Amino acid sequence: MLLVLWRKWTGRGSAAAVPEPEALNPEETVEAIQQGREELRNDLIKQYRPFIVTTASRFSKRYIDPDRDDEFSVALLAFDEAITRYSNEGGSRFIGFAAQVMNRRLIDYARKEQRHLTAVPYSSLQGESDEEGSVLSKIEAKEALTVYSREQIAQDRRDEIRTITEELSEYGISFFELTEQSPKHQDSRESLLEIGIRLAKRESLLALLKDKKKLPLKELGQLENVSRKTLERHRKYLITVALIAAGAYPLLQQYITGADAGSEEGRL
């Protein structure tokens, strides 16, 4: 269930430095840019330049010089990409979304840089000491990248959980309530999961849910042929499943479908 994910992946840790909130809301600024106010794009990039540097530096485990290091250019282009691609319909915040895009592009860049190390002949490790150290350092860097990728996925999960926590608060739902709300029997859980997923796919019902911040009991009951009492009893669980399925939560969505979710937890 989702509470288990919360306890497993939400840890105490410092987040990437983000500029202090200002009068200009980043989500509103991005929306304005997407609607044609391109003059705001450079202003937003300039405002969040320290955040871009910090994100690239955290990924690289060293300070990234914007004037010399390619990683800054990769992160900068990714931030610009995030401005174009961002949508707040899933409830995600722009900064969290931008950080994910930057980290994924940095991973792609690092993988390309390390690709030639996929096959290193053993003899190449037996040269001069300096050369040996250089090659071994590259291999260690490649292994570190694999570890980092796993750590980044865990961080992305934590970010998604924080975001869904904020979104659920608008519906009066907390993670600590989901323990009691989770169906006890496997058959019931599977059935309600499917109902929640179908709710997310029905645009009219999803719009009602987001507009009124309430489960559309009557309409959903008629479509699913399920009693109002059953839906009401599992209201918070269904809302949580629907918001995850409809939102920008690719990692948490794995725990709805059961795909690649890991052997420990399975589905919600």
Automatic annotation (TrEMBL):
<protein>
    <recommendedName>
        <fullName>RNA polymerase sigma factor SigI</fullName>
    </recommendedName>
</protein>
<keyword id="KW-0346">Stress response</keyword>
<dbReference type="GO" id="GO:0016987">
    <property type="term" value="F:sigma factor activity"/>
</dbReference>
<comment type="subunit">
    <text>Interacts with RsgI.</text>
</comment>
<feature type="DNA-binding region" description="H-T-H motif">
    <location>
        <begin position="217"/>
        <end position="236"/>
    </location>
</feature>
<keyword id="KW-0731">Sigma factor</keyword>
<comment type="similarity">
    <text>Belongs to the sigma-70 factor family. SigI subfamily.</text>
</comment>
<dbReference type="InterPro" id="IPR013325">
    <property type="entry name" value="RNA_pol_sigma_r2"/>
</dbReference>
<dbReference type="InterPro" id="IPR014244">
    <property type="entry name" value="RNA_pol_sigma-I"/>
</dbReference>
<dbReference type="InterPro" id="IPR007627">
    <property type="entry name" value="RNA_pol_sigma70_r2"/>
</dbReference>
<keyword id="KW-0805">Transcription regulation</keyword>
<dbReference type="InterPro" id="IPR014284">
    <property type="entry name" value="RNA_pol_sigma-70_dom"/>
</dbReference>
<dbReference type="GO" id="GO:0005737">
    <property type="term" value="C:cytoplasm"/>
</dbReference>
<keyword id="KW-0963">Cytoplasm</keyword>
<dbReference type="GO" id="GO:0006352">
    <property type="term" value="P:DNA-templated transcription initiation"/>
</dbReference>
<feature type="domain" description="RNA polymerase sigma-70 region 2">
    <location>
        <begin position="44"/>
        <end position="115"/>
    </location>
</feature>
<keyword id="KW-0804">Transcription</keyword>
<comment type="function">
    <text>Sigma factors are initiation factors that promote the attachment of RNA polymerase to specific initiation sites and are then released.</text>
</comment>
<dbReference type="GO" id="GO:0003677">
    <property type="term" value="F:DNA binding"/>
</dbReference>
<dbReference type="Pfam" id="PF04542">
    <property type="entry name" value="Sigma70_r2"/>
</dbReference>
<feature type="short sequence motif" description="Polymerase core binding">
    <location>
        <begin position="70"/>
        <end position="83"/>
    </location>
</feature>
<keyword id="KW-0238">DNA-binding</keyword>
